[in-house]
């Protein structure tokens, strides 16, 4: 009995030792309960490498491989979706870009093109100016219909035109023309009116032809600025309006009114508003039925709609004021226009109105009415 028990104990010990060395066997019924999946080559390649485990541990089960395979596939698909989503532009960004583009297009459409006016002596520019003024200010339409369009075809060298403007200061047309004719003869003709020629004339010589001592100093100051290079005909022609106004008002005896007349009738600048001219102000008062004469500081605001052809509109303000009995300014004569042109305009004015106002020098008439003073 003792031997039999000892034999059984030895057999059990051997079986336990063998169980530790060899993996347990599963019978067919147990194996059938666990679904067996044979991993494919792709699954095996995607599966993480298996490390060798000690013999005492249970080896990696197929269930783990089966669970990992769908997860790997889903991870792969999700990564592909993420990549595709990153490459595809977002609908919200597209709408935002379209909205921004649309706003830019609308802002561009609302920005009106800026009219760039040319010299009024350019062919067809006066007609363009009249069309613009009719559209910008319909009140001007009937006034434009009453008069022949202005002409800006007379040109003199800037130095000659400025000299002429100084000589006509505070004089009636007849007296100014007499002095100007003697001055031209003293210089040897209009072609001889040059800075060096004027500087060579003494105040005594100028006084002999009727030029006052003050005007002689004005003429010499203008000639010196030319000789020193501060001014020149080429620079004056090419300067913008603001710079030109600043430079010319530096000359003794040349004020803002004379600069405006020079810019309109000698240089044919299209957008000049003589805010100190009494007849232009009077014309604005009549045009808009204002109770009071507009102040020079109000003129810019009242006439802003005329840009960039305020010179042409100012010409019609002169005509309107003269038609209502204001003295004729004859601004074109003092600024360099021909006498024949001024006489033609005056003849037309006389034909339209039975009572013709006396033709006066622009500066003289304005000073008599207290509108401005020269040399300020």
From TrEMBL:
One of its GO terms (molecular function) is DNA-7-methylguanine glycosylase activity. Pfam families: HhH-GPD. InterPro entries: Alkylbase_DNA_Glycosylase/TA (IPR051912), HhH-GPD_domain (IPR003265). GO terms for biological process: base-excision repair, AP site formation; DNA alkylation repair. Residues 1-22 have a biased composition (Low complexity). Residues 167-322 form the HhH-GPD domain. Residues 39-55, 99-109 have a biased composition (Polar residues). SMART domains: ENDO3c. Residues 1-109, 334-357 are annotated as: Disordered. Keywords: DNA damage, DNA repair. CDD domains: ENDO3c. Belongs to the alkylbase DNA glycosidase AlkA family. This is HhH-GPD domain-containing protein. It comes from Carya illinoinensis.
């Amino acid at each position: 009995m003792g031997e039999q028990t000892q034999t059984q104990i030895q057999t059990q010990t051997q079986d336990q030792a063998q169980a530790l060395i060899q993996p347990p066997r599963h019978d067919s019924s147990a194996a059938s309960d666990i679904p067996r999946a044979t991993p494919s080559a792709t699954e095996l390649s995607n599966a993480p490498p298996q490390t060798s485990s000690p013999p005492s541990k249970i080896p990696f089960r197929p269930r783990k491989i089966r669970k990992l395979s769908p997860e790997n596939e889903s991870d792969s698909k999700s990564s592909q979706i993420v990549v595709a989503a990153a490459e595809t532009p977002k609908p919200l960004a597209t709408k935002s870009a379209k909205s921004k583009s649309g706003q830019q297009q609308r802002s561009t459409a609302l920005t009106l093109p800026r009219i760039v006016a040319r010299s009024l002596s350019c062919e067809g520019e006066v007609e363009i100016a009249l069309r613009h003024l009719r559209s910008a200010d319909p009140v001007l339409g009937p006034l434009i219909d009453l008069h022949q369009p202005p002409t800006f075809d007379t040109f003199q060298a800037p130095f000659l035109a400025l000299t002429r403007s100084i000589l006509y200061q505070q004089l009636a047309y007849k007296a100014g023309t007499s002095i100007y004719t003697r001055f031209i003869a003293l210089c040897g003709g209009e072609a001889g009116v040059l800075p060096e020629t004027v500087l060579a004339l003494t105040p005594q010589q100028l006084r002999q032809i009727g030029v006052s001592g003050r005007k002689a100093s004005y003429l010499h100051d203008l000639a010196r600025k030319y000789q020193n290079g501060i001014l020149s005909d080429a620079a004056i022609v090419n300067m913008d309006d603001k710079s030109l106004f600043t430079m010319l008002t530096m000359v003794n005896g040349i004020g803002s009114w004379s600069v405006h007349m020079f810019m309109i009738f000698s240089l044919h600048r299209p957008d000049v508003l003589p805010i100190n001219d009494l007849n232009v102000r009077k014309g604005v008062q009549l045009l808009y039925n204002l109770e009071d004469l507009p102040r020079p500081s109000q003129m810019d605001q009242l006439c802003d709609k005329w840009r960039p052809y305020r010179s042409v509109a100012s010409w019609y303000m002169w005509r309107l004021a003269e038609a209502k009995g204001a003295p004729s300014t004859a601004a074109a004569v003092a600024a360099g226009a021909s006498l024949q042109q001024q006489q033609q305009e005056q003849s037309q004015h006389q034909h339209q109105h039975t009572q013709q106002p006396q033709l006066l020098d622009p500066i003289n008439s304005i000073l008599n009415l207290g509108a401005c003073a020269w040399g300020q």
